[in-house]
Give the backbone structure.
Amino acid sequence: MTHMAILLAGGSGTRMGGMVGDKTLIEIAGRPLISHSLLAFAESKSVAGFVIVIRDNEQRKLIQKAVAQIGLQLPVLYTTGGKERSDSVRAGLDLLPSDTRFVYIHDVARPAVSAQSIRAVRKALENHLCATGLAHRCQDTLREFADNPLESAASGRCLDRSKLWHMETPQAFPRDLIEMAHANLKLAVTDDLAAIEALGKPILLVESLLPNPKLTRPADLPIIEAILNKSAMSNTHESPFRIGFGYDIHRLQKGRPLTLGGVLIPADVGLVGHSDADVLSHAIADAILGAVGCPDIGHYFPNTDASIAGINSQRILERAVQEAAGHGFKLINIDSSLIAETPRIAPYLQQMKATLSRTLQVPESAIGIKATTNERIGALGNAAGIAAQAVALVSR
Ligand code: MG
């Protein structure tokens, strides 16, 4: 274990305005805040393990649960932090395994840190063997005041922003250097590069090219969540859209009711099935389930289950939409074709659209239904049954 990360998780989060209990464990982009930093370090393949500096044992249990949920494959050690930030860093340094040569110190309040940025820090550290850290250029005009300009008008002066940088984390160090810096530190510091500066040593910056903001105020939450969601999508090369396809066929029989698209159609033949045999609704349900990677409707409504005999297929469609929602997807639109030699379907298409629109909770304009015959070809052409095909588009 030559490279280890110390994650600072014990901060009080007082500036979050009492909105939340523990900033470290706020659910953001689908997982607790701390999990995002752990995953970014794991993906960067830059460290052999973690020391997490916690506030107390209660927090430790919750963090352990979060660590287990992401299936982290790297070892995690825990230690309790101190009153000042530097006390917490010292506690983390004390727990490093003896073979640690390089240390990354990261504030978990920066959950959007990317694996790419962490790798860039590692490269700089290995090439220069000095204190290094992520930072971005100052873009805003900076003005310094001697007196509080919120209370009354005060004289200010502009700082030269071309020489100013915003510090981020992680910051990374040769182990002996950061240990020496913290052992000798007399002042309170807000980052670890300041401890190096107090030793009179130079520091090397790595320009942070991807957004890595610090969660400080409640207003930061939606911004950071949007960054995390966007990077999750680009990391996995996953489109926000998915398409699914469904096909179904049922036999026609004299004396059975004929339900298509949730509409009872007067006819002397109807479809045979365990449910109401609504072949169109079944094809649509399979298209929706297929789009989100779920098994087909037989999995949810097996034809061996006597309790669902004759079930209204609109319930099946509702379930498909629910399953999609459970996987984080909503239905955008469907298109479908019915292949029926008899009866004539066209007069009922509008009523089917209205019914499916209510069931699927999408506008009628998002539902396509076409009806065609099979040109008297084959079994479908002989009116032995009715078939349906459907596609569904869903979005995250
Ligand atoms: Mg079916």
